[in-house]
């Protein structure tokens, strides 16, 4: 049956997806397996680590990375890209990963360092640091679409957190840890709704930036922050000590690593 022009146009508009929605639909179709881990094991590797980062697109706070060496003898069921999981499910899986993995580690690079070296390089630094913290050390890396500056053999996998169980495990640990960090900053900077938006560009967050300007922990090199017409507010307690000492003290209290 032929559709009328208005009906056809309406259906076409309905089927048009935003880039983010299209990507989410694609990720949901991908299967998270041990295919890449098995290939590495067959090549002679024994301790294969999945590596991933979260917070790359956030306007606030650190980028956080994790590295995980899964135990081939124990299957953590339900692993998939952390973006596709409900928060409650991520928390449950994070506990299982930490309990049953051969090794896991988390590292972070703060907003000031991100502004210095850019978010791409900061992500690589955080991921490399997580890998170097693994005990026992990995002998092969599976990484979500990046290559790290280290001597270990490694394989970059596009959409790796949706395809590799090890990378998915890393994305879950990193996501759970970063969300915890941002929630702890929410009462310090209550204007931005950080507990709900985790620092991302939600309408409420952008509106708060326009009205109040950025906090000291916003990423000043990100356009929605540096193009803001309101000058950055400096907290009173930060005027009493050197900024570096204050950031280090806050980092120690919240468990946030600094770079």
Offer a concise description of the structure.
This protein is α/β, with parallel strands linked by helices. The chain is built from twelve helices and five strands. Mean pLDDT is 85; it is low at 232-259.
Explain what the structure shows:
The chain is an alpha/beta fold. It has 2 domains: 156 residues, Nucleotidyltransferase, domain 5; 69 residues, no CATH class. Helices cover 47% and strands 11% of the residues. A 5-stranded mixed beta sheet has the order 3-2-1-4-5, sandwiched between helices. The N and C termini lie far apart (63 Å). The C terminus is likely disordered.
Helix percentage range = 40-55%
Structural class: alpha/beta
> Could you state the order of secondary-structure elements as H and E?
HHHEEHEHHEEHHHHHH
Give me the number of helical elements: 12
What is the CA-CA span between the terminal residues?
63 Å
List keywords for this structure.
single chain; 259 residues; alpha/beta; Nucleotidyltransferase, domain 5; 2 domains; five-stranded mixed β-sheet; globular; disordered C terminus
